[in-house]
């Protein structure tokens, strides 16, 4: 496939590469669709383009040195002076429409700007375009605001620029951090090749070229085949050329023209996309023939590009703010837990569960005081130690990241499938301690727009890239690289580093005092151990006493006591298996249900996020869950064929709300006496956790509601618990047009976009044409199964297309804004007529009989 998508944006690069060698040849010419006059401060003509005679009847040499009043009319000079006063800043451009510059000559569309000591006036014959630019752009922006998600936003931007300018192909380029870029969205005429997904190297657009794209945000080449017109004189008396960086009519390098000719491109246009003061990307447009949108259309396109940039900036900021807000909540919980238990910082698995929610990674390694722990996809311990040594040499006291670890550490290629990229968060001074996040190798094929190792040869315009080879698509398999960590993720990591360092410094400051009290602590430890043993003995004695009072027989007493002790033991095992760390609520209920119910555990249905609870809360809740399950199995829903639904959620202040609902069991009767189990359920959470417990004995089944305060909830994990209810998919007309190619003929841009969306919602692949000629081209290139034809297409009707569709046996319907006032020719009286405005449901209702007739 002949490919030169990147060469559109290399225009300024080529120009700049020739500036020192032949500045006048490149910068001292204009495109012939307009003319240029440069005025000095006292309003004398110092320069003019050689083609000015074609427009105002006076040659450039005759104009030089003459006052502007000898050329332009008084009202035109007044209008120009007023507009020049509005110029703000060196890169500002002002425009006037249908201005009668020279008395007796047709009016012109005019652009004025400063260029050093000159005022540059560019003019072209007035297009008399009655398009209301502000209204058009307002409609485009309103539609763009409805796009959901960044992909749809970029795609709609390309579609609307193409609809406005009429170019055959409109692409959205996005620049990556290292300067290379990618075509991330595209809108194109049917029948031409797609450049979507192509990449181009950073060398195609050097730094100075990007600086010009920041200054001159709109650029057009109306006719690649046209001969540029020189500006006279070439140099001023001081030997300086006119700076034409902001000129709309400025000609381009012959090298770039050579590129475009080799591609078969007849015209090109670009609009810079600037976000937060930096060049984010471009709208780049190609047309396979000459094309010059009207002055009003170009002004509207430039305005749309500026508004698009602001909307894009707003969307990116909103996404970043939402992401960083979520990250702060996770960081606060992490720091709260670490501040209470320093050992958690050495727990790689626990850190991964917390951090991966905001900074996704495949594995985590922790290196503190020479000790390391690893979790997930990571290098082995010796390799991790080598990575830490490398980090101590290469990294400063800040977050460090790479997406190509083997480039820094060649031996890392052996474990690229587990760790090709890393993000290191230093936690101390040299020798440093680290939390290191790893990302595995991401094998992917990159389609470069031209081979990066481009062959240079000499052509008619000097040394240049060989056009044929630079346009070829070049695919490369990228190995040994991971998905890079995004800037927002790096900011989150830096915030974590700062906060963790604060916690560590506080702990370090208290270390000396701790050592001084070591002897006292040893004595206190013995006392504490004695106290805990006494508490355990008291708890066992309480269980014995309360169970004995409520037992009907020895066997029942032994069974009940044994089950309660086992419940406490299982809870204790879960929180001590990871050194008295927070434990998962989902695991607690699953293990308890499995231990007590066996094969009937599927009767217990769990719904809710997986939360981590503090050890003390976990023990209390384990006994409550045990008593509830025991009662359900003996007297409630699980004693029959019923079920128990346990739902939980975390409210806005971080408290855990748990609902227990039994159904399908025998009728429930409130107990006449309160046993130990009921006391545990009703009083444990309020008494031990300062929470809330409510139990209702409904006839259809027990309902209980518990609230555990937020201080007992450590975090909410990203992975959803099994059985979580899936969100229902949005309902659309299902697959009415699935697999069918539908031709939409509509000359109004906004209505065409609405029609496209409605047909795509019905499952169709849509091709759009705005005229009879374009519709014929689409039908000739692509198969068409159905068609929707706007009857009136401005100066023509869609009847020729209808005749062609009838000839080919392709079903279609007409759409019209005339309502019942439209009379179809007799040969089309049987064709369905849809009145505007129509919706997806209207189209579905009209097209359904055609689909049914085919089947």
What does this 3D model show about the protein?
The chain has 855 residues and is of the alpha+beta class. Among the domains are: 341-443 and 481-512, PHY domain (Beta-Lactamase, 2-Layer Sandwich); 551-720, Histidine kinase-like ATPase, C-terminal domain (Heat Shock Protein 90); 741-854, Rossmann fold. The protein has 24 helices and 37 strands. A seven-stranded antiparallel beta sheet has the order 1-11-3-2-6-5-4. Helix 19 runs antiparallel to helix 20 (676-689) and helix 21 packs across helix 24. The chain is globular and about 120 Å long. The model is unreliable at 1-25, 454-458, 464-469, 527-533 and 720-732 (pLDDT under 50).
Strand content: 15-25%
- Backbone structural class: alpha+beta
Radius of gyration: 37 Å
* Global mean pLDDT: 80
Reading off the top of the CATH hierarchy, the class of the domain at 551-720 is best stated as Alpha Beta
State the distance separating the first and last CA atoms.
39 Å
Task: Give the spatial strand order of the biggest sheet.
Answer: 1-11-3-2-6-5-4
Tell the overall outline. Answer: globular
Low-confidence stretches: 1-25, 454-458, 464-469, 527-533, 720-732
The CATH level-2 architecture of the domain at 551-720 is identified as 2-Layer Sandwich
User: Under CATH, the topology of the domain at 551-720 is which?
Assistant: Heat Shock Protein 90
Specify the helix fraction band.
25-40%
- DSSP helix count? 24
Q: Got a strand count? A: 37
CATH H-level homologous superfamily name of the domain at 551-720: Histidine kinase-like ATPase, C-terminal domain
- The biggest beta sheet, please? 7 strands, antiparallel
């Amino acid at each position: 496939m002949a490919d030169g998508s990147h060469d559109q944006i290399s225009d300024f690069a080529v120009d700049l590469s020739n500036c020192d060698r032949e500045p006048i040849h490149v910068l001292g010419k204009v495109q012939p669709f307009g003319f240029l006059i440069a005025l000095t401060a006292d309003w004398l003509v110092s320069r003019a383009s050689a083609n000015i005679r074609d427009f105002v009847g006076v040659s450039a040499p005759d104009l030089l040195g003459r006052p502007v009043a000898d050329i332009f009319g008084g009202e035109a000079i007044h209008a120009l002076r007023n507009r020049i006063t509005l110029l703000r800043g060196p890169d500002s451009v002002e425009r006037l429409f249908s201005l009668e510059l020279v008395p007796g000559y047709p009016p012109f569309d005019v652009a004025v700007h400063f260029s050093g000591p000159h005022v540059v006036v560019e003019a072209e014959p007035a297009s008399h375009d009655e398009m209301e630019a502000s209204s058009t752009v307002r409609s485009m922006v309103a539609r763009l605001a409805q796009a959901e998600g960044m992909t749809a936003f970029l795609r709609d931007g390309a579609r609307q620029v193409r609809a406005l300018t009429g170019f055959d192909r409109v692409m959205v380029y996005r620049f990556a951090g290292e300067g290379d870029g990618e075509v991330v969205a595209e809108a194109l005429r049917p029948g031409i090749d797609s450049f979507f997904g192509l990449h181009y190297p950073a060398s195609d657009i050097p730094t100075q070229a990007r600086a010009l794209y920041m200054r001159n945000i709109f650029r057009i080449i109306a006719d690649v085949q046209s001969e540029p017109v020189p500006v006279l004189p070439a140099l001023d008396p001081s030997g300086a050329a006119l700076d034409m960086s902001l000129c709309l009519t400025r000609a381009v390098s012959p090298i770039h023209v050579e590129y475009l000719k080799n591609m078969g491109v007849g015209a090109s246009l670009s609009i810079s996309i600037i976000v937060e003061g930096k060049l984010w990307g471009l709208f780049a447009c190609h047309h396979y023939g000459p094309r010059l949108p009207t002055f009003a259309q170009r002004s509207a396109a430039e305005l749309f590009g500026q508004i698009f940039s602001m909307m894009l900036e707003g969307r990116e900021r909103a996404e970043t703010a939402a992401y960083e807000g979520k990250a702060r909540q996770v960081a606060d919980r992490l720091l709260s837990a670490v501040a209470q238990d320093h050992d958690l910082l050495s727990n790689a698995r626990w850190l991964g569960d917390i951090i991966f929610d905001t900074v996704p990674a495949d594995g985590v390694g922790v290196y503190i005081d020479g000790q390391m722990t690893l979790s997930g996809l990571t290098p082995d311990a010796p390799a991790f130690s080598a990575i830490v040594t490398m980090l101590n040499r290469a990294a400063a006291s800040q977050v460090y990241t790479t997406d190509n670890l083997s480039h820094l550490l060649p031996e890392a290629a052996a474990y690229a499938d587990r760790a090709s990229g890393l993000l290191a968060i230093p936690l101390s001074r040299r020798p440093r301690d680290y939390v290191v996040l790893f990302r595995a190798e991401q094998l992917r094929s990159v389609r470069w727009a031209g081979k990066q190792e481009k062959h240079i040869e000499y052509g008619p315009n000097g040394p240049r890239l060989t056009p044929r080879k630079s346009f070829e698509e070049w695919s490369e398999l990228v190995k040994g690289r991971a998905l890079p960590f995004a800037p927002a993720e790096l900011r989150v990591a830096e915030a974590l580093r700062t906060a963790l360092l604060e916690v560590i410094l506080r702990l370090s400051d208290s270390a000396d005092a701790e050592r001084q009290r070591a002897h006292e602590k040893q004595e206190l430890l013995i006392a504490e151990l004695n106290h805990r043993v006494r508490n355990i003995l008291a708890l066992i004695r309480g269980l014995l006493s309360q169970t004995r009072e409520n037992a009907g027989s020895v066997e029942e007493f032994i069974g009940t006591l044994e089950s309660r002790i086992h419940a406490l033991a299982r809870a204790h095992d879960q929180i001590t298996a990871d050194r008295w760390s927070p434990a998962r609520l989902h695991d607690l209920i699953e293990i308890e249900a499995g231990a007590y119910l066996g094969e009937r555990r599927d009767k217990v249905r769990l719904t809710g996020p997986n939360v981590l609870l503090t050890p003390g809360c976990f023990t209390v809740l384990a006994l409550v869950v045990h008593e509830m399950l025991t009662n359900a199995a003996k007297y409630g829903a699980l004693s029959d064929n019923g079920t128990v639904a346990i739902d939980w959620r975390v409210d806005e202040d971080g408290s855990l709300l748990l609902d227990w609902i039994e159904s399908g069991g025998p009728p429930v009767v409130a107990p006449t006496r309160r046993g130990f189990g009921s006391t545990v359920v009703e009083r444990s959470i309020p008494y031990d956790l300062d929470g809330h417990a409510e139990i209702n004995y409904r006839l259809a089944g027990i309902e209980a509601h518990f609230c555990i305060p937020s201080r007992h909830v450590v975090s909410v994990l990203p992975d959803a618990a099994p059985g979580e209810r899936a969100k229902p998919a949005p309902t659309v007309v299902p697959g009415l047009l699935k697999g069918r190619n539908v031709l939409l003929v509509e000359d109004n841009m906004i209505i065409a976009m609405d029609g496209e969306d409605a047909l795509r919602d019905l499952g169709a692949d849509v091709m759009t044409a705005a005229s009879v000629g374009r519709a014929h081209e689409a039908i000739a290139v692509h198969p068409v199964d159905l068609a929707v034809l706007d009857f009136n297409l401005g100066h023509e009707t869609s009847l020729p297309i209808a005749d062609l569709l009838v000839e080919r046996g392709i079903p279609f319907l007409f759409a019209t804004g005339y309502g019942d006032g439209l009379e179809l020719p007799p040969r089309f009286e049987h064709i369905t007529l849809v009145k505007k405005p129509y919706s997806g449901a209207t189209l579905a209702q009209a097209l359904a009989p055609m689909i049914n007739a085919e089947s």
